[in-house]
C-alpha cells in the first residue's frame, strides 16, 4: 500500500504502526529510523511535496506559454486581381483554423479562387475552393476538411479575416471574409484567424471598384491570384 495512503489509517499513539510508515518514507523524508514520525510531520511533508509539484508544474506551464508568446505570428501575402494584402495569422486565437489555412495555402488551394461578394461597409468574401479558375486536383481536394468553430476574445473589426460557414458553425472549410467595417453581431459566431498588416488602401479600392457580386466595372470577377507564406520577422 502507498505510504501516503497508509498515513490515513495511523493512530497518533500507535508507535509500532507509525514506525512502519517511517521506514517506508525514510528515503524521502530523511528522518532517522529511531525517530518515529508523528502524524503532523507526515502530513506536513506530504503537503510540502504537493505544493512543490504544483509550483514546478506552474513554472513549466508558464515557460511554455512564454515561449509560444515569443514565437512570431505566421504571415501570408494575398495577391488578388485588385491588389495585394499582407496578413498576420492568429494561431493563439484559432490554432486549428490557422493550421488548416496554412495547409491549404501550401497546397495551392486558394490559387485562382474567385471572390463571392463585396458588400460595402460589411465584407469582401471569397468563394469556396470549388469556384476557381483552375480546377482543384484530387490531392488539393483531399486537403480540404471542415474546421470546428474557434471562439476567442477577438472582435470582428475592419481588416479582420473570418472563416465563413453554413448553418453548422463547425462546417467552415475554405471561404473566408475580410471585414470592411466593424461587425460586432458576428462576434462569437465565426472564427477570427487573421488580420491585415498592410494593404488597407487596396482594401478600400476593392470596396469602391467592385459591386456586391465582386465584379468590377468591366464585369470582371475579383480573384485571388495566389497566397504565399512570408518568412518570419526575426
Notes on the protein architecture:
By secondary structure, the protein is an alpha+beta fold. Helix content is 34%, strand content 19%. It is built from 6 helices and 8 strands; from the N terminus they run αααββαββαβββαβ. Strands 3-4-6-5-7-2-1-8 form an 8-stranded antiparallel beta sheet. A hairpin with a 2-residue loop joins strand 1 (75-80) and strand 2. The two termini are 54 Å apart.
Task: Itemize the secondary structure elements and their pairings.
Layout: H1 3-6, H2 15-29, H3 39-70, E1 75-80, E2 83-89, H4 95-106, E3 115-119, E4 123-126, H5 138-143, E5 160-163, E6 176-179, E7 191-198, H6 200-209, E8 224-230
Antiparallel strand pairs: 1-2, 1-8, 2-7, 3-4, 4-6, 5-6, 5-7
Note the total helix count.
Answer: 6
- The coarse overall form would be globular
**Which structural class should the secondary elements be placed in?**
alpha+beta
Please describe the biggest sheet, giving its number of strands, its sense, and whether it closes into a barrel.
Answer: 8 strands, antiparallel
Strand order of the largest sheet: 3-4-6-5-7-2-1-8
Output the helix-strand order: HHHEEHEEHEEEHE
Q: Average pLDDT value?
A: 81
Share of β-strand residues: 15-25%
Whole-angstrom Rg: 29 Å
- Helical percentage: 25-40%
Instruction: List low-pLDDT spans.
Output: 1-32, 60-67
Q: For the record, give the distance between the C-alpha atoms at the N and C termini, rounded to a whole number.
A: 54 Å
Amino acid at each position: 500500500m502507498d505510504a501516503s495512503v497508509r498515513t490515513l489509517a495511523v493512530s497518533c499513539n500507535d508507535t509500532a504502526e507509525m514506525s512502519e510508515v517511517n521506514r517506508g518514507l525514510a528515503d524521502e523524508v530523511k528522518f532517522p529510523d529511531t525517530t518515529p514520525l508523528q502524524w503532523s510531520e507526515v502530513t506536513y511533508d506530504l503537503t510540502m511535496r504537493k505544493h512543490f509539484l504544483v509550483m514546478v508544474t506552474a513554472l513549466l506551464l508558464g515557460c511554455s506559454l512564454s515561449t509560444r508568446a515569443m514565437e512570431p505570428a505566421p504571415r501570408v501575402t494575398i495577391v488578388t486581381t485588385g491588389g495585394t494584402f499582407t496578413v498576420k495569422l492568429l494561431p493563439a486565437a484559432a490554432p486549428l483554423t490557422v493550421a488548416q489555412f496554412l495547409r491549404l495555402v501550401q497546397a495551392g488551394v486558394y490559387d485562382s479562387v474567385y471572390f463571392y461578394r463585396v458588400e460595402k461597409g460589411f465584407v469582401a468574401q471569397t468563394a469556396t475552393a470549388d469556384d476557381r479558375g483552375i480546377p482543384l486536383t484530387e490531392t488539393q481536394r483531399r486537403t480540404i476538411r471542415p474546421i470546428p468553430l474557434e471562439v476567442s476574445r477577438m472582435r470582428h473589426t475592419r481588416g479582420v479575416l473570418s472563416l465563413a460557414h453554413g448553418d453548422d458553425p463547425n462546417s467552415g472549410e475554405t471561404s473566408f471574409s475580410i471585414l470592411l467595417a466593424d461587425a460586432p453581431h458576428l462576434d462569437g459566431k465565426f472564427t477570427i484567424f487573421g488580420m491585415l498588416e498592410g494593404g488597407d488602401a487596396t482594401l478600400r479600392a476593392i470596396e469602391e471598384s467592385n459591386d456586391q457580386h465582386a465584379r468590377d466595372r468591366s464585369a470582371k470577377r475579383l480573384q485571388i491570384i495566389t497566397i504565399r507564406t512570408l518568412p518570419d520577422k526575426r
